[in-house]
Amino acid sequence: MAFELQCPLPLSTYPTVTMGHGGGGRLTQLLIEQMLRPAFNNAALDALHDGAQLEVQGVRLAFSTDSYVISPLFFPGGDIGALAIHGTINDLAMCGAQPFALSAALILEEGLPMETLWRIVQSMRDAAAAAGVPVVTGDTKVVERGKGDGVFINTSGVGLIPAGIRLDPRRATPGDVILVSGPVANHGMAIMSVREGLTFETTLTSDTAALHTLVAELLATVGADAHVLRDPTRGGVAAALNEIAQAAHVGMQLDEAAIPLDEEVRGACELLGLDPLYVANEGKFLAIVAREVADTALAVLRAHPLGGRAAIIGQVTPTHPGTVVLHSRIGGNRVVAMLSGEQLPRIC
Amino acid sequence: MAFELQCPLPLSTYPTVTMGHGGGGRLTQLLIEQMLRPAFNNAALDALHDGAQLEVQGVRLAFSTDSYVISPLFFPGGDIGALAIHGTINDLAMCGAQPFALSAALILEEGLPMETLWRIVQSMRDAAAAAGVPVVTGDTKVVERGKGDGVFINTSGVGLIPAGIRLDPRRATPGDVILVSGPVANHGMAIMSVREGLTFETTLTSDTAALHTLVAELLATVGADAHVLRDPTRGGVAAALNEIAQAAHVGMQLDEAAIPLDEEVRGACELLGLDPLYVANEGKFLAIVAREVADTALAVLRAHPLGGRAAIIGQVTPTHPGTVVLHSRIGGNRVVAMLSGEQLPRIC
Q1: How far is A1 from chain B (nearest CA, A)?
Q2: Distance between B167 CA and the closest CA of chain A, angstroms
Q3: Max Cα distance, chain A (Å)
Q4: Beta strand A251-255 with A324-327: parallel, antiparallel or unpaired?
Q5: In what order do the strands lie in the sheet with B286-289?
Q6: Contact A64, A157 (CB under 8 A)
Q7: Of A6, A65, A296, B217, whose CA is between 20 and 30 Å from A224?
Q8: CB of A153 within 8 A of CB of A106?
Q9: Is there a contact between A272 and A343 (Cβ–Cβ < 8 Å)?
Q10: Do B154 and A112 touch (CB under 8 A)?
């Protein structure tokens, strides 16, 4: 097989892979849009989704994959094992699917304490059992000491998309309302507080959770009036909404005061100079729905234990397409741009 | 979530993960059987397959995952990218499925030359296009320099199992005939020759290939009389047949003289003191079929470009259940045991 001469990313600017290419910001987007998407060009991939939507013999399937390289392996509220189960369940849920099977592939570093592996495997087991989604196939590889980092986990998953559901980032339409299912930035700040050795009056806890039952209730009520769902992981709410705004060629207007944020998380963000809109979440999602059903959607979310603090945080606009604008607490407007690199490496 | 006190592997014997736990031999089996399978206990997982077989709204699906950590990234006959595409296609084919979608998840090490990544991505693209199986969803993560090894790739895949196909290792039945689709040990010895800097009169070349079209032709002809398919990757023919013999509680008798082996591969194995039965393959498979269709199966395999040197290599026996016995060239019988650790680390 002949190799093409020209790398699509200019090698003078990007001679090597940098941490920023994995941060979920502009560099990640560049790598995906310039190199990976064109290489694997096909209709399912072009949907710019958290997963692919496929139709097989009349059955609508969602299929998604994610590798988890989070450091540290254990953190308040979770660990890499639970995260890997929740994350792929959530990616499938964001396609509107009810997940029915997961795979789990472990890359272990030689020297990993067996008891650490056992704790992680138990956590995966418990998370899968709690979510009601079985791990049906797996793989285990080992790399030499110093060629890995304890454990990396890939989970992939398959789900069933009910009739009448049509989620697609390109369906974000001016007039649509943007909701979030709860307070943002908890996962990222929990990880950061461990890494930085910060202590607060209360422990910052990751929000890692499986969102498929909450999503199922939302979709059962609003159906095709749900236009886009997205879980704001790497790159946070900012990256997620920018990607949707670009895909749909629409603008977005957010109301800062409406975005739920725990006081401890706000304090930690201020201390570390981080903007909570860019911080990763693992148990929250954004929903973009038709204006007529916004209040219903909010009520459904709030009635579920995982959505009790859901809020309407903004709207889709015909103006400034591709750009997310925040109306700040102090009254001004500012652009919420896509970050270039990453502010929080290995957050998931 | 409460952690159980007791790790199912005795920590005094296995305090840490070793390279042998990833080698495909007895230690890998121990890790899977003692820790992983019980944790994720469910019917699909219990099938001891290369992938799971699922039924969704009347549609029979196969779902499989594999991470590729091969070193070096490029080798005669292929590279990690092509290998990752072929490997998961083959795992699906071994379930009797026609693959229809793949995922690709990359874990990149900071500092990986962008051009190296581009070569690998092109190779994945070309392999997927040649096989006619699209990559529909993906993920990219980056870890710090020294926390990975260039690139690790996970591919997962979904396939459709035609009506009338019932492949299951437990269907291996005394009287069944064992076939192999071509010469063994080429992949592993190609990798070893690069690692050891060996040169032979001809370059040893990996046999990496997508086997789904060959499998489709076989199954279209022999249908449910094909009882088990298995691609002998890590651990080679020995590990694959031992696993099946144990799963089905049957014995196996192999005829060494009948096992196809390239002369250069035989020479390299002798030089390095390796038994070709334990060396990995990436473009071959074992088929265990009803005796009545064995000759037909052989003819179908031989008529395909990837099966030209297929052979009948042995049979399933009611005697010595769980054990594979080789009738050697010099006339004796010896047990082909499962290796404890690995003889060739990071071969796939």
Answers
A1: 7
A2: 16
A3: 60
A4: parallel
A5: B226-230, B286-289, B177-180, B311-317, B251-255, B324-327, B333-335
A6: yes
A7: A65
A8: yes
A9: no
A10: no
- Candidates A3, A101, A141; nearest CB to B119: A3
* SS percent in chain A: helix, strand, coil, step 5: 35, 25, 40
Contact check, Cβ <8 Å, B156/A57: no
Tens-place pLDDT, residues A227-274: 999 999 999 999 999 999 999 999 999 999 999 999 999 999 998 889
pLDDT tens for B37-79 read: 888 888 777 666 778 999 999 999 999 999 999 999 999 999 9
What tokens were used for A47?
């949907």
Would you call B63 and A103 a contact, using CB atoms and an 8 Å cutoff? yes
Q: Do A67 and B107 touch (CB under 8 A)?
A: yes
Quickly list DSSP for A29-71: HHIIIIIIHHHT--TTGGG--SSEEEEETTEEEEEEEEEE--S
Where would I find the H helices in chain B? 26-30, 37-39, 80-94, 114-131, 186-196, 212-222, 236-248, 263-272, 294-302
What is B169-335's CATH topology? Answer: Phosphoribosyl-aminoimidazole Synthetase; Chain A, domain 2 (3.90.650)
Q: Is the pTM of this model over 0.90?
A: yes
Chain A partners of B44 at a C-beta cutoff of 8 Å? 101, 134, 136-137
pLDDT reading at A343 higher than 70: no
Q: Is B148 in contact with A144 (Cβ distance < 8 A)?
A: no
CA distance, residue B304 to nearest chain A CA (Å): 21
pLDDT tens digits, one per residue of A170-198: 999 999 999 999 999 999 999 998 988 87
What is the spatial distance between Cα B130 and Cα A108, in angstroms, rounded to a whole number? 32
Residues B93, B95: Cα–Cα separation, whole Å: 5
Distance from CA of A278 to the nearest CA of B (A): 17
- Alpha carbon B51 to its chain centroid, in Å, reads 11
Helix (H) or strand (E) holding A87: helix A80-94
Kindly give the confidence (pLDDT) of every residue in chain B, 348 residues in length, as a single tens digit, with 9 standing for 90 and above.
444 557 888 888 889 999 989 888 888 888 988 899 888 888 777 666 778 999 999 999 999 999 999 999 999 999 999 999 999 999 999 999 999 999 999 999 999 999 999 999 999 999 999 999 999 999 999 999 999 999 999 999 999 999 999 999 999 999 999 999 999 999 999 999 898 887 777 789 999 999 999 999 999 999 999 999 999 999 999 999 999 999 999 999 999 999 999 999 999 999 888 999 999 999 999 999 999 999 999 999 999 999 999 999 999 999 999 999 999 999 999 999 988 766 678 989
Q: Return the domain boundaries, chain A.
A: 49-160, 169-335
Closest CA to A166 of A217, A229, A103: A229
Tell me how far apart the alpha carbons of residues B280 and B346 are, in angstroms, rounded to a whole number.
10
Highest CATH level, class, for A49-160: alpha beta
Q: Using alpha carbons only, how large is chain B's radius of gyration in Å?
A: 20
> Out of A35, A52, A127, whose CB is closest to B101?
A52
Question: Largest alpha-carbon pair distance within chain B?
Answer: 60
